[in-house]
Amino acid sequence: MKILSGIGLLLVSTLLLSDTLTILNWEGYLDSSVISRWQKQSGHTLQQIYFDNDEDRDSVMVGHKDRVIDLVVLDESASKTFGASGTLLAFKSNPKVANIQDIDQRWQNVCGDYAVPYLWGTLGVAYRTDKVSPAPSSWHELLTPNKTLSGHIGLMDDFVDLLAPALFVDNHSISTNNVHQLKGAFERLKGLLPHVLTFEYGISFLDSNSDKDSLYLTLAYSGDQYLLNEKSGSENWNFTTLKEGTVAWMDCFAVMMDSPRQDLALDFLNYLYQPEIAALNSEALYIATPMQSARTLQTKEFLSDTTVYAPVEVMNNAQYYEVLDKENILLRNRITSSLVKIHESK
């Protein structure tokens, strides 16, 4: 996995355009009409650098030069880690972003002191309804696939989410630091490798591979199915959580401490957290908003979609990301790297 091509030119162009706001973001994670309205209202330009896994995002955040990134989307544990390291700006009490106070109280502190909740959802699988029937119901169907799925499975090069399915089926915490449990997850996933097509994030795989039709089922986040359908030119992709458990994730928006456009970044966030704009962005992306005021403006059909707003029984069976210690991260990185290398060598 790698940052999308053209990043070098993008970084250079940002240096030349002081009125251009640059966001480090997942692909397709900010609605184009929301961007257009802000550009028209503000007179400024917005551009994005895409990543397709957390490690790539972290590398760009740490290694970028010349203060070219202004805003970043990151998960709740990373927002706390980078905030504590001095990488992010503390802005939550700044009157320029008064609209963030409209975030539901239950979500207000999820992202820590240096970021604000953006969108939330769950971890599960995206699958093709023309190839996989009935819909998957258990993580065992991913870990011990039938002949139809063999060779058509996508995983993620991510040291938390990759291990999650194996930890779920053994009823372990996704954040465990127990060496025995992590090695057990490694062995389960090692046994899956002969059936794996790719470790590339599903959306990126459809973007960059000529054999995109060979992917039938992939580890995914709620909302991914809509971009997968767009990339494949079909309506075959669907998403589901699985009975052994899910991860309830929250993505957060943060401002880079070294950005020379901090005021512009705050102006954009205040715009994005207007209830009307937050509702529009959430529904266009088909991902849940943490703002009740925005939800009151969304359609009944959208609000009733259980792949967006997960039902109580799913949330009661959900785990949450935690900040991991260095030893835990090192071991998980070794496991993930080993699995990818074994897969690539076959």
Walk me through this protein's architecture.
This protein has 15 helices and ten strands. The protein is an alpha/beta fold and 346 residues long. It has two domains: 7-119 and 249-307, 3-Layer(aba) Sandwich (D-Maltodextrin-Binding Protein, domain 2); 121-247 and 318-345, Periplasmic binding protein-like II (D-Maltodextrin-Binding Protein, domain 2, 3-Layer(aba) Sandwich), CATH 3.40.190. 45% of the residues are buried.
Summarize the entry for a quick read:
By secondary structure, this protein is α/β, with parallel strands linked by helices.
Give the topology.
Blueprint: H1 7-16, E1 20-26, H2 32-42, E2 45-51, H3 54-63, E3 71-75, H4 76-84, E4 116-128, H5 140-143, E5 153-154, H6 164-169, H7 179-192, E6 196-198, H8 202-208, E7 217-221, H9 224-232, E8 237-240, E9 246-255, H10 262-272, H11 275-285, H12 292-295, H13 300-303, H14 312-315, E10 318-319, H15 326-345
Parallel strand pairs: 1-2, 1-3, 5-6, 5-7, 9-10
Antiparallel strand pairs: 3-9, 4-7, 4-8, 4-9
